[in-house]
Amino acid sequence: MAKKRVLVDLERLKYPNSGLGFFCHCLHRGILEAKQELTIHFYKELERGDSTVDKVAFRGWHRLFNPTPVFYNVLHVTHQLQKYFRNTPHQGKRVLTLHDLNFLFEPLTPRRYARVLRRVRRNIELADVIVCISEFVRQNLFDNLHLFKLKQGVEIEVIHNGLIFSDEIDSFPSSLHLEPTDKFLLNIGTLHPKKQQLRLVEMLQFLPNSYHLVLVSSDGEEEYRDLVLSQIKTLGLEQRVHIVSNISNLEKQTLLAHCSAYVHPSIAEGFGIPPIEAMSFGRPTFLSTHTSLPEIGGAEAYYFGELEAQAMATTLLEGLEQYANDPDKPKRLKAWAHRYDYKTMATAYLSLYKKLAGIKA
Question: Domain limits of the chain?
């Protein structure tokens, strides 16, 4: 009997430094390393030298009509904004990974809001199984079900994201004029109001002058970036705040390994990959109490009770003192982080594919 066929959407791999690109990379590797009872093909942009044995080529015109899934028993659409599987003659089962519904809470123009809702709604309403990346996202979906007409019998599950952990490090990014021995706080993410980097800049003025702040961001809202830069100048922090972009994964890991603390006061997260990466290096990790972050950070993270600069500085200094006096803390942080392993994530998705394909466990 021929193996059941599954098509996994990895189109976002064309943006390898993005959160979705990283998710696809981890899922891809986990599936390849697992023992297969299925024929699994990957939908992605082919690169020079790519074997086409297990790959289906992404094409720009697929947003109009995409015939590729027609011969597959299961189609996995890996994010809710995907536009390449809206018009397709697929008759098998469809899985959708729902990363967040953040657009519901962002200050979008009415036109932009309607466009995003239309795309998310289409993907959600076509799904036979919706996989949420956290309990928070699942509850958020339940709270907003009035916006969607779900398929009858649709299943809603939670599979936490999984990361590929590595302790390999390199030198600091050449654009960053700091030494590994310098004290610095680290934040990784798009420069955006929901990520609250402005609060970190304002917090820095209440910390000893020996502390620096490193913001790693590959993109962002221009207006918010200008606001952050303006506040840095107003507070006279030009020599203590460092914004770097387009760094390699190895450079990112080096920063994570050497930071005095990882700080992530975001108010809109579906999961929160950078905090887990920081915890995997045993670094003290400070989060907001919003959205998925308490679920993902658990009891080992520290939390900003309020997002006011002076209060945040107090929380940070108290947390760093606790960390210094708790020799087992790095070990516990690493153990917590490794709950979110890419192999565990891939195994959960493979079990789901098999169930939908009618393969008994």
Answer: 5-162+341-356, 183-337
Please give the backbone phi and psi of residue 233, each rounded to the nearest 5 degrees, phi first: -70, -45
CA 138, 124, 273, 112 torsion: positive or negative? negative
Q: What is the dihedral of CA 324, 200, 291, 297, to 10 degrees?
A: -20
Instruction: Give 344's contacts (C-beta < 8 A, 6+ positions apart).
Output: 160, 162
**The CATH number, out of the four listed (3.65.10.10, 3.30.70.260, 3.30.450.20, 3.40.50.2000), of the domain defined by the range 183-337:** 3.40.50.2000
183-213 pLDDT tens trace: 999 999 989 999 999 999 999 999 999 999 9
Pick the CATH number of 5-162+341-356 from 3.40.50.2000, 3.40.718.10, 3.40.190.10, 3.30.43.10: 3.40.50.2000
Q: Indicate whether this model's pTM tops 0.90.
A: no
Give the side-chain half-sphere CA count within 13 A for 88: 26
Residue 259 and residue 280: Cα distance in Å, rounded? 13
| Residue 73: Cβ-neighbour burial (10 angstroms; 0-12, 13-18, 19+) | buried
Report pLDDT digits (tens) over 102-159.
899 887 899 999 999 999 999 999 999 999 999 999 999 999 999 999 999 999 999 9
pLDDT (0 to 100) of residue 61? 46
Which residues, 6 or more positions from 177, have their beta carbon under 8 angstroms from its beta carbon?
242
Low-confidence ranges of the chain (pLDDT < 70): 1, 46-67, 69, 89, 361
Q: Residue 275 class from Cβ within 10 Å (0-12 exposed, 13-18 middle, 19+ buried)? A: buried
Kindly give, in sequence order, each residue whose CB lies less than 8 Å from that of residue 61, ignoring residues fewer than 6 positions away: none
Q: What per-residue confidence (pLDDT) applies to 3?
A: 85
